[in-house]
Design goal:
The complex is a heterotrimer of chains A (about 425), B (about 300) and C (about 300). Chain A has 13 helices and 9 strands. Chain A is of the alpha/beta class and about 425 residues long. In chain A, α5 crosses α6, α6 (about 255-270) runs parallel beside α13 and α7 packs across α8 (about 295-300). Chain A is globular. In chain C, about 75% of the residues lie in helices and about 0% in strands. Chain C has helices at about 5-15, 20-45, 60-65, 75-110, 110-125, 130-140, 150-160, 165-175, 180-185, 190-220, 225-230, 240-245, 250-280, 290-295. In chain C, α4 packs across α12. Classes of the chains: A alpha/beta (about 425), B mainly alpha (about 300), C mainly alpha (about 300).
Chain lengths: ~425, ~300, ~300
């Protein structure tokens, strides 16, 4: 960088640039700017929007410590309101995680109110929650897992449900009308249930993964180098690594456990260099990968993405038969930033309707926890191909399986650091 | 405002007035955002949500996040180091390859194409008007396992070729970068080579230099400024690229610094790190940027 | 294609190692390499089947035939297209006047302040886009501004990133025009504003127009800024849609969307070129394409 002498006022070529001076000019502003910025400092980022949350402690729900969240009566909408007219109901969801024809059916049902539905998508729920907190996008509904609920309640991001709009709650498995993460279902209804296991192409992988002593080992088997993938969600991928290492506490806060997970993750990366993505439902049938950590719903969905002439029986899925794997459910919640709470309630009820839930199942591949849908029926009715029977979620697994829970901030940071290290490809 | 009176004297206040809106715009939407990055990097983190709490007063800045990132670049715990090194290697290789492709093409078009020059130029400019995403999409399609590339390689089914091009191959990412950015290099090179004075080259010829010698001794040295500008215009945007690696690989083993930024921007507790990487890339690219600005200005004075 | 005519081929055969032949081949090869993949992608937008790699016959299914997934019927696809064009028009409409005024002001106003502003402007020209986009995202998220994620923030970001185009192009033109015309107008009694409006601006019009076309074409292709600053699905333009879908499960409808975008781009450029030629008629030695290229 040229080092020019300090400028004189009488330089013959006044337009000549001097880096130092320019630096000064560029950074002279910030003094003023800073004052400006300090004035304009926003409040919504402080996190203390609700009284009492300054204590920096999150109440974390788990099956052994159920939580019933407080409800402020004022936040409930009144009974029997008419839907908003000419409104656009904004859904915030994963890509390909709601059937477009189901959405169209909802629009049609409430056509008298001139309802439009708009689906916006996110890549992972971390990103989604950040956008919900900072943005004023006005999303009405969000489809998270229960691992964000305490944050959402404590920041008043979600709206309590007025049960009078949602009679269809009786259609779903009874455990969901009083779940441990939301006693009395004040804020949530279930959307789908799923397991997290291993999906593979039976036509390309000769080994039978199911009967192996530790099926998770395949992700460390150099034979599958660059042919495998893990889910691009820190907790889901790392929990699989924990299970492989024999750690059944997949929400561990112990530094030793986290260290074990880190070692194993890096080892996995060195041995098979897995892709990190959430598009297995497309990539596995398209032949982009042969083996992947997968959600049960994605492997079911994969049948619709097979190239012409390829039968679904090339797909295979493993999940522990005793249910001792990751079993989770996603939720529907109504966001308080949404402008159409009545429509949102109606949409929740609409999606719990058995026919609509099954229609949706037929598009997304994720099973709704409907009472009337027996495991055998998912196959006999053609929602799940016969060879993917392992991808059907059984109700009893919810007592034996492991759940991905919210973590306390410190542990959360430690887990995220490992994940970041993994994703940096060191 | 005082400066105006001193330096412009007989000038009307019209010029400052004209320049003011643009200057204010840049101050508010270019300088101020960069300052917010500083405030976030040197600010705190909300204990519950782990979202950034920016601190705007430099006197209260806390370097924890900043030093945190730097302690992870080199040393035993330096897990960002490889990604940064990889970025340098990818960008360097891709720029070099771009130059190897772009220089002959630009040279031919500017100096030798003759009556075809306009058509050629139009075709060379064409990729510039085609969105980067569309051009990447084209390659994503071609490189599928059952895509046309593999099929072409199988010579019409003679062999079975099942190369998964899109599974974390550095070569594919680098070639993707070359493909994506080479138009940005051809145009400035073309402009530079086109401006070369023919009489310089004729003089060299008259003095007995052969075609190749003329090229080597006259054209190349005279085109150095254009080459530098072109390389800078290509490698600066590459430094922030994350989508090429994302689309053509999605493996952490091809992550560039842009991916580190993109992965962390919206992740709780890591926004400050994203900011620190932004600052890092900014500082690294500041030298070439200043160089470019300087050469752009001296050229402006010369012509 | 231009390079190997028959005579050219014969000459190449006689001496394949003459440098121009090599260069011709190289240029030709480059053109094929750079354009063929895109042409193939456009072709596959007309595929009758769902595959993006296997030709299954010609149809307009992905443009309007398919009742759910075609560009015409899939709301998310055509809103993306419309939003892209809206961003292009809005950003161009703000960038060009702002930039032209800035260029004029900065060119004539002497002192440290304008030099600093000019320096900042040039930095904004070369800063890696990701950095600016992240910084703007932080600004919008952290500071109370009238900007919100979505169209307003996207336009603001695009204008910031594009502002340097008209400034650089107009200033280059100002250099070649010189001051004599404007001076003459002032000497003849015109107030400075009239000198600019009546004399300078008409002379600058080709440059202004060229920069408008450049800005527009660049904005509708933008990805990084518009992605970070997008709000909900209604503010996701084509490039973002392509990125999101290309990673998930694309159908040829995506190729169709991209092809339509391509068409829009080319229409803008061709129209731009025609108008540009008309604006700069009567000026000798202006090769419009060259000026377009020179603007970069």
């Amino acid at each position: 960088m040229p080092d020019e002498p300090p400028p004189r006022r009488t330089r013959p070529i006044p337009r000549r640039t001097f880096i130092g001076r320019m630096g000064l000019a560029a950074f002279g502003g910030p003094a003023l700017l800073e004052a400006l910025a300090a004035c304009a400092k926003s409040t919504p980022s402080s996190g203390s929007s609700t009284p009492g949350s300054t204590a920096a402690a999150l109440t974390i729900a788990s099956p052994s410590t159920p939580v019933t969240w407080p409800v402020h009566k004022d936040d409930l909408i009144a009974d029997g309101l008419t839907p908003e007219k000419g409104a656009t109901l904004q859904l915030y969801n994963y890509a390909d995680y709601i059937g477009p024809h189901v959405v169209k059916a909802f629009e049609k049902k409430y056509a008298a109110y001139n309802v439009k539905v708009r689906v916006s998508t996110f890549n992972d729920t971390d990103e989604a929650l950040t956008k919900i907190r900072t943005g004023k996008s006005g999303f009405d509904m969000y489809f998270p897992s229960y691992d964000q609920i305490s944050k959402m309640v404590s920041a008043s991001l979600i709206r309590p449900l007025n049960h009078s709009y949602i009679p269809n709650i009786t259609n779903v498995w009874p455990q969901f009308s009083d779940p441990w993460y939301d006693g009395g279902w004040h804020y949530t209804v279930p959307y789908t249930v799923y397991t997290t296991g291993i999906g593979w192409r039976a036509d390309r992988i000769t080994a039978d993964i199911g009967p192996m002593a530790n099926p998770y080992d395949v992700f460390w088997d150099p034979a599958y180098k660059k042919r495998d993938a893990v889910i691009d969600d820190w907790h889901t991928a790392m929990a699989m690594v924990a299970l492989r290492a024999g750690l059944t506490d997949i929400n561990s806060t112990k530094p030793a456990d986290i260290a074990t997970i880190q070692t194993q993750m890096l080892d996995m990366q060195a041995k098979t260099d897995p892709k990190v993505t959430i598009t297995m439902y497309n990539d596995l049938p398209a032949g982009q990968m042969d083996l992947a950590q997968m959600w049960s719903g994605d492997v079911v969905n994969a049948q619709y993405y097979l190239p012409k002439g390829v039968k679904p029986d090339v797909l295979a899925y493993w999940f522990p038969e005793d249910g001792k794997g990751m079993v989770d459910n996603d939720l529907m919640v109504i966001l308080s930033q949404g402008k159409n709470p009545v429509l949102a309630h109606l949409f929740v009820n609409f999606m719990l309707d058995t026919k609509n839930a099954l229609d949706n199942f037929g598009y997304i591949g994720y099973q709704p926890p409907q009472n009337s849908l027996s495991p055998a029926q998912t196959i006999s009715d053609g929602y799940v191909p016969k060879n993917l029977g392992t991808a059907v979620v059984k109700q009893e697994w919810f007592t034996q399986g492991y759940r991905l829970l919210e973590l306390p901030p410190d542990a959360d940071a430690a887990w995220h650091e490992v994940w970041q290290r993994f994703k940096a490809g060191a | 405002m005082r400066a105006r009176r001193r330096t412009s004297g007989r000038r009307s206040p019209l010029w400052p007035l004209l320049a003011l809106p643009g200057a204010v715009w840049l101050a508010l939407l270019f300088v101020a955002p960069l300052y917010v990055v500083l405030a976030i990097v040197f600010g705190g983190v909300d204990p519950v949500f782990r979202t950034p709490l920016p601190v705007y007063n430099p006197l209260q800045w806390d370097a924890t996040q900043f030093t945190g990132v730097f302690s992870h670049i080199i040393g035993p715990n330096g897990y960002f180091g490889p990604a940064l090194l990889r970025t340098a290697v990818y960008v360097g290789t891709a720029s070099l390859l771009c130059l190897l492709v772009a220089y002959p093409v630009a040279y031919y078009t500017a100096r030798l194409a003759g009556r075809h020059r306009r058509l050629l130029l139009a075709l060379l400019i064409a990729p510039f008007w085609i969105s980067y995403m569309m051009r990447m999409l084209a390659w994503v399609n071609l490189l599928q396992t059952d895509g046309l590339v593999n099929r072409a390689l199988s010579l019409g089914g003679l062999y079975s070729v099942q190369i998964d091009w899109l599974n974390g191959r550095s070569l594919v990412v680098v070639l993707g970068l070359v493909y994506g950015y080479v138009p940005y290099m051809i145009l400035p090179l073309y402009a530079g080579l086109d401006r070369l004075q023919p009489h310089m080259l004729e003089a060299a010829r008259d003095l007995g230099a052969g075609r190749f010698d003329t090229f080597r001794r006259v054209t190349v040295p005279l085109s150095v400024p254009a080459v530098i500008a072109a390389v800078l215009l290509t490698c600066l945007p590459m430094l922030g690229d994350y989508f090429t690696s994302d689309l053509l690989s999605a493996s952490p083993h091809t992550a560039m610094v842009g991916n580190l930024i993109n992965n962390t921007v919206l992740t709780p507790g890591q926004t400050g790190q994203a900011g620190a990487f932004v600052l890092l890339v900014l500082v690294v690219s500041l030298v070439p940027m200043l160089f470019y600005v300087r050469s752009a200005r001296s050229e402006g004075l010369a012509s | 294609m231009t390079a190997p005519s028959v005579a050219g081929l014969r000459r190449w055969w006689e001496n394949p190692f003459r440098p121009p032949r090599f260069l011709q081949l190289m240029t030709f090869g480059y053109l094929v390499w750079s354009l063929l993949p895109v042409i193939i992608a456009v072709l596959f937008s007309f595929n009758a089947g769902r595959s993006r790699t296997l030709w299954q016959g010609f149809s307009f299914r992905w443009y309007w035939g398919d009742p759910i997934r075609s560009v015409w019927h899939d709301d998310t696809l055509h809103t993306a297209l419309v939003h892209t064009l809206v961003l292009g028009v809005l950003a161009t409409a703000i960038t060009v006047p702002l930039g032209v005024a800035f260029a004029l002001g900065i060119d004539r106003w002497r002192g440290r302040l304008p030099e600093g502003a000019n320096f900042v402007m040039l930095l904004s020209f070369v800063i890696p886009e990701t950095l600016l986009a992240v910084a703007l995202l932080f600004l919008v998220n952290q500071i109370v501004t009238p900007l919100q994620l979505g169209t307003s923030a996207q336009v603001a970001g695009l204008v910031t990133f594009q502002l340097s185009y008209p400034v650089v192009i107009v200033r280059a033109r100002l250099l070649t025009i010189g001051k004599q015309y404007e001076q003459a107008a002032v000497d003849l009694g015109a107030p400075p504003t009239a000198a600019i409006w009546r004399v300078l601006l008409p002379m600058l019009s080709p440059a202004i127009f060229a920069s408008a076309v450049l800005v527009f074409a660049d904005v509708i292709d933008d990805f990084v800024i518009v992605r970070y600053l997008s709000g909900d699905a209604s503010s996701e333009p084509t490039s973002v849609k392509i990125y999101n879908t290309a990673r998930a499960a694309p159908t040829p409808a995506l190729n169709a969307l991209a092809s339509l975008m391509l068409l829009a781009s080319f229409l803008a450029v061709v129209l731009g070129l025609v108008i540009y030629r008309w604006l700069s008629r009567g000026e000798r030695d202006v090769s419009s394409l060259d000026s377009f290229a020179g603007g970069l």
